[in-house]
TrEMBL record, chain A:
<feature type="transmembrane region" description="Helical">
    <location>
        <begin position="220"/>
        <end position="239"/>
    </location>
</feature>
<comment type="similarity">
    <text>Belongs to the binding-protein-dependent transport system permease family.</text>
</comment>
<dbReference type="InterPro" id="IPR000515">
    <property type="entry name" value="MetI-like"/>
</dbReference>
<feature type="transmembrane region" description="Helical">
    <location>
        <begin position="62"/>
        <end position="84"/>
    </location>
</feature>
<protein>
    <submittedName>
        <fullName>ABC transporter permease subunit</fullName>
    </submittedName>
</protein>
<feature type="domain" description="ABC transmembrane type-1">
    <location>
        <begin position="58"/>
        <end position="238"/>
    </location>
</feature>
<feature type="transmembrane region" description="Helical">
    <location>
        <begin position="173"/>
        <end position="200"/>
    </location>
</feature>
Automatic annotation (TrEMBL), chain B:
<keyword id="KW-0732">Signal</keyword>
<comment type="similarity">
    <text>Belongs to the bacterial solute-binding protein SsuA/TauA family.</text>
</comment>
<protein>
    <submittedName>
        <fullName>ABC transporter substrate-binding protein</fullName>
    </submittedName>
</protein>
<feature type="domain" description="SsuA/THI5-like">
    <location>
        <begin position="38"/>
        <end position="252"/>
    </location>
</feature>
<dbReference type="Pfam" id="PF09084">
    <property type="entry name" value="NMT1"/>
</dbReference>
<dbReference type="InterPro" id="IPR015168">
    <property type="entry name" value="SsuA/THI5"/>
</dbReference>
UniProtKB/TrEMBL annotation, chain C:
<keyword id="KW-0472">Membrane</keyword>
<keyword id="KW-1133">Transmembrane helix</keyword>
<keyword id="KW-1003">Cell membrane</keyword>
<feature type="transmembrane region" description="Helical">
    <location>
        <begin position="223"/>
        <end position="243"/>
    </location>
</feature>
<comment type="similarity">
    <text>Belongs to the binding-protein-dependent transport system permease family.</text>
</comment>
<dbReference type="InterPro" id="IPR000515">
    <property type="entry name" value="MetI-like"/>
</dbReference>
<dbReference type="Pfam" id="PF00528">
    <property type="entry name" value="BPD_transp_1"/>
</dbReference>
């Protein structure tokens, strides 16, 4: 945003690269019909966006992404709170969680297809699994960082585990949870598109593969551009949301200092 | 790349629409897994013309462009019917999965132009399987019908398939990879074979029609379902086959008719101009024990042997022709 | 000491064992279909065959080579880019918009153009892994450089340290915890992208094998290879934590 107000060398660089794209394609330097000029790609993007096809697909993709993000994130927060406040739960289930964590998502999709099929259930689960781990890690870190006195105070006043977690621990570690969600957000978009590319008839990912197989390179690159802008926008939007949601937190911090 | 100004969906209004389904009849929903290729044109035609609705069926297709996820989805109960290539179906059967053939789908043509082609770089002097020994050939996937037919051609033309390196390259990238010299030959299926010759015609050439040279008119793909579903709901699949076969008739009467190309464009999104140069497969209704046995026998020659049930026991009565 | 650490692992292993036992019973009683989920004991036997025959070595090495090459290249570029962008405002202004725009593109969506430019071989695979590694490392390095103590920088200037010397001996060490955090995130991504690239390019490695086993309905083998992959991920993470502790060891605990 700030850079938009003052066109910098950075935007000139992007413009130069885009120009290089256009020129290289116009003069067929790549020697391939699969490298269309930028102008043709943008025309395809405009046509399929105005025609309503892409916005509809995008809506589906975003729905799956947010559903998975919220489900996985919520699970991450709950398990994180449990692991950090009741060490016995971590003792019991930590190893299993740690074993699942490093399995790359693309490798998890084939067996998940066997159990959950190819539709929303599978895709949302995959996205949820992706979102779960960053949020879990950050929540645990947050709980550890919560002032010991806040906890001690809760104990002195005899507040039970759930109320203590909900009213003292969770608000205090919220900035950490948000940081976890931000990491999860970027991963969730990628994973949603990957899952859509592999199976089913839904979303931007499927559109991308379909266009690729139909030999329609402009539409394919239009999708890539759309995803870049979408990811950029989501990240910016989340930062703004986070600032607003955490406003009271910072205000509180300022008072305390 | 040509601009496509006309939306594919609009083109379809040119097709005649059949009578709406019987009033008050509740439709049985049937989920079918397909691939966006010309092979499934009859299914889409039957849907478009209302032949399934007339049978009391509502067909819901699910496309997988990238990989073979249809058959695992069938096992998982996500689909009732799956369009798949014969080799993948038989590999599942070999591992004990109860797939049964409900209808034929696509086969090679008795004479050129055919649906599979082997392309090489001009001037590379690769004309046979023997020339390919020690070199790299691309298939979209190893262990499927494309690869099997390609290897059969390698063997038939004097090469040892074990000495030819198979590289998996997705069809859309195959022409570029071949032109750039990353592979020495490619087993293309339509519409990618004709598409590559149009876009890279000055650098690539076709050296063989592998099916015609090894087993002319041999089978490529079928529709399958699970055995227990057939035993419980055989009548549903009879209705499915009846509807599908009317689509087959419609397509067979209109090969290279603009109406057919419009239909294919609508579901595959391949531009009509490209489809005009594309070879269409033969669209059979039946599946014969002999054609299944031919694939089993060929598979055994290329490292995919094993114990299979008698082919006749794998074919449901709807596919008996 | 050792017995204590074994003891602390025991409950976790017990739960894992119970889960596997439950799965085994679920399959044996027919509650889960055998075609979808072979019993864990059958998978264990297949896994044992893979390990005993040494069949696992070549694909494992192939994937590891891809992960390490891509990780090394991506990290080096990320650190260099982050240092340059953090230190020279002109470089920052030049590259920041590009980085911000490139960062959110799903790398999986970049595979077709990457194939066009780099072909289908090792170059393509290494590049896609390196690209995934590059951005988290770069962003974290940038944050680390930004966080370098102003007072220390002033002191370095008054002592007449040159740019290279300051970067090497002050900024880089100060940014190291951030860089390492970025690298740790990237290591996970590198493995994911390596497996994805192997699945897409269909040659060698664990990713291709898992996909190939699934396509051929060799479900037991598929799970066995998945377990090898999970253990690889666990080992890589453990290895990195160890290296991180080493690298940060000499540094005084500042916070």
């Amino acid at each position: 945003m700030r850079a938009l107000a003052r066109p910098s060398s950075g935007f000139l660089l992007i413009l130069a690269l885009l120009l290089l794209w256009e020129v290289s394609a116009r003069f067929d330097w790549m020697n391939s019909p699969n490298w269309p000029p930028l102008s043709v790609v943008l025309a395809a993007l405009a046509r399929d966006s105005l025609g309503g096809e892409l916005p509809l697909l995008l809506g589906g993709t975003l729905w799956r992404m947010f559903a998975g993000l919220l489900a996985g994130g919520a699970a991450g927060v709950i398990v994180g709170l449990l692991f950090a406040s009741l060490p016995v739960t971590r003792r019991l289930f930590g190893l299993t969680v740690e074993l699942i964590r490093p399995i790359p998502i693309p490798a998890i999709i084939p067996p998940l297809v066997l159990f959950l099929g190819l539709d929303n259930t599978m895709k949302v689960t995959v996205v949820g699994l992706t979102a779960f781990f960053p949020v879990l890690t950050n929540t645990m870190q947050g709980v550890r960082a919560v002032e010991a006195d806040a906890l001690a105070m809760g104990r002195t006043f005899g507040i039970g585990f759930w109320r203590r977690s909900l009213h003292i621990v969770l608000p205090a570690c919220l900035p950490y949870v948000f940081a976890g969600f931000r990491v999860a957000l970027a991963l969730a978009l990628v994973v949603t598109v990957v899952a859509e590319m592999i199976a089913g008839e839904q979303g931007v990912g499927h559109y991308l593969v379909l266009m690729q197989f139909a030999g329609r390179a402009p539409e394919m690159y239009a999708t890539v551009i759309l995803l870049a802008v979408l990811g950029y926008g989501l990240n910016r939007g989340f930062l703004a949301f986070e600032r607003r949601a955490l406003h009271w937190y910072f205000a509180l911090g300022a008072q305390r200092n | 790349m040509t601009q496509i100004t006309r939306r594919a969906g609009l083109a379809l209004t040119a097709l005649p629409l059949a009578a709406p389904p019987l009033v008050g009849q509740t439709l049985t929903r049937l989920r079918v897994s397909v691939i966006p290729v010309t092979d499934v044109a009859p299914l889409h035609a039957a849907m478009r013309l209302g032949h399934f609705a007339a049978e009391g069926l509502e067909i819901d297709t699910s496309t997988t462009a990238g990989g073979a996820t249809g058959l695992p989805g069938l096992v998982a109960g996500q689909f009732r019917v799956v369009f798949s290539n014969t080799v993948s179906i038989l590999l599942g059967i070999r591992e004990g999965l109860d797939f049964r053939f409900v209808a034929g789908a696509a086969a090679g043509n008795p004479a050129p132009p055919d649906i599979f082609a082997i392309l090489t770089r001009k001037g590379s002097n690769i004309r046979s399987g023997r020339d390919l020994e020690g070199k790299r050939i691309a298939s979209n996937t190893r262990n499927n019908i494309v690869w099997l037919r390609g290897m059969a051609w390698v063997e038939k033309t004097g090469g040892d398939w074990r000495k030819v390196t198979t590289v998996e390259v997705p069809f859309p990238q195959m022409a570029d990879a071949l032109a750039a010299g990353q592979i020495d030959a490619g087993i293309f299926s339509e519409p990618f074979a004709s598409g590559a010759l149009v876009s890279h015609g000055e650098r690539l050439e076709r050296v063989a029609w592998p099916i015609i040279e090894t087993a002319p008119g041999a089978t490529v793909a079928q529709y399958v379902t699970m055995k227990d579903d057939l035993e419980r709901n055989g009548e549903v699949f009879e209705r499915f086959a009846r509807g599908l076969f009317k689509g087959v008739d419609w397509v067979n009467e209109r090969r290279h008719d603009p109406a057919l190309l419009d239909l294919i464009t609508a579901f595959s999104r391949v531009p009509v101009e490209r489809l005009r140069q594309t070879a269409l497969p033969t669209y059979p209704k039946a599946v014969t024990p002999a054609e299944v046995q031919e694939v089993i026998t060929t598979m055994a020659r290329f490292g995919m042997g094993g114990r299979f049930p008698a082919p006749a026991s794998l074919i449901f009565r709807t596919a008996n022709g | 000491m050792l017995s204590r650490s074994v003891l602390s692992w025991l409950p976790g292993l017990l739960v894992l064992g119970l889960i596997l036992l439950g799965l085994e019973l679920a399959v044996e009683t027919g509650w889960v279909r055998r075609a979808l989920m072979p019993p864990p004991t059958a998978i264990a036997l297949t896994l044992w065959d893979l390990l005993a025959s040494g069949e696992f070595v070549a694909p494992l090495l192939s994937t590891m080579e891809l992960v390490f090459t891509g990780f090394a290249i991506g990290s080096a570029l990320g650190i260099a880019g982050g240092l340059a962008m953090g230190w020279f405002p002109a470089v920052f202004r030049l590259l920041e918009p590009l980085v911000e725009l490139m960062r959110p593109i799903p790398k999986a969506a970049l595979v077709p153009p990457l194939m066009l430019f780099l072909g289908i071989g090792t170059t393509m695979k290494v590049t896609s892994v390196a690209l995934a590694v590059l951005f988290p490392v770069l962003v974290n390095t940038l944050q680390g450089v930004r966080g370098t103590d102003r007072v220390m920088l002033d002191a370095a200037r008054t002592h007449g340290w040159g740019t290279a010397h300051t970067l090497r001996h002050l900024v880089l060490p100060a940014a190291l915890p951030f860089i390492l955090a970025g690298m740790r995130i990237s290591l996970g991504l590198a493995l994911v992208l390596a497996v994805l690239a192997e699945m897409l390019s269909g040659q060698g490695g664990l990713g291709f094998l898992i996909l190939d086993m699934q396509r051929s309905f060799l479900i037991r083998q598929m799970y066995a290879w998945l377990i090898i992959l999970a253990v690889l991920g666990l080992a890589l993470n453990g290895l990195f934590l160890l290296a991180e502790r080493r690298a940060l060891h000499w540094q005084p605990q500042s916070n």
